[in-house]
Amino acid sequence: MKIFVNKIQCKHCGDIIESKTVHDFKTCKCGKVFVDGGHEYLRRGFLTKCEDDIIELSEYEEELLDEEGYPTEESLEKIKKWEIKSDDDFEKLMDFIKKLWYYPDFLKKNKNKEYTLITGGWSGNEDIIGAMKNNIILHITYWKSSERGGKHIYQSLSQEIKTEKNKK
Ligand SMILES: [Zn+2]
User: Fold this and answer.
1) I need a labelling partner for 21 at 20 to 30 A (CA). Which of 59, 69, 117, 118 fits?
2) What is the tens place of the pLDDT at every residue in 118-159?
3) Ligand 1: distance of its center to the CA of 13 in Å?
4) What distance in angstroms lies between residue 16's CA and the mean position of ligand 1's atoms?
């Protein structure tokens, strides 16, 4: 996670406090909440529940890949938990995966909206496939085949039926 601004507002006293460096520990006027961590991590103190005591004013960006080009835990979690209610959600997920895929040319979409993913032996790509298999809806509805050597095909069922019809 890349943190640009680490800032909160206390819901009790309205005080806005910001932590600008790692050990810049700030408490609000009433003392019910605090902020810490600067641009390294988002640490908060509150009375009972974060959302009851704090208004989040931070700005941050999740990091997709680590320094070595492997997908971060956050990215893999996102794939596992991606909500798929329509083919549109599926396409969005595949766009997201394309950003993570090492050797971008090894992830291809054809005009029948069939996606071919080749891992190329890169373990980061294998991790992505692992996360995709963990997403039950994705696996049941969109997974088509996997071959030895790391070739995986995904396509929506409805799209597959359409393609079959076109052939006839
Ligand atoms: Zn306060």
Assistant:
1) 69
2) 999 999 999 999 999 999 999 999 999 999 889 999 998 777
3) 4
4) 8
* Paired tokens of 69: 């080009």
Distance of CA 53 to the CA centre of its chain: 27
| Residue 29 CA to ligand 1 centre (angstroms) | 5
CB 5 within 8 A of CB 18: yes
Q: What is the pLDDT of residues 12-39, one digit of tens each?
A: 999 999 999 999 999 999 999 999 999 9
Q: How far is the CA of 21 from the centre of ligand 1 (A)?
A: 21
- The vertex-127 CA angle with 123 and 129, nearest 5°, equals 115
One-letter amino acid for residue 95 of the chain: D
Q: Which H or E run contains 61? A: strand 59-61
Task: Tell me the two tokens of residue 99.
Answer: 């950003």
Beta carbons within 10 angstroms of residue 135's beta carbon: 20
Q: What is the C-alpha to C-alpha distance for residues 133 and 89, in angstroms, rounded to an integer?
A: 16
Q: Which amino acid is at 87?
A: D
Do 107 and 98 contact (CB within 8 A), yes or no?
A: yes
Q: What's the confidence (pLDDT) of residue 158?
A: 75
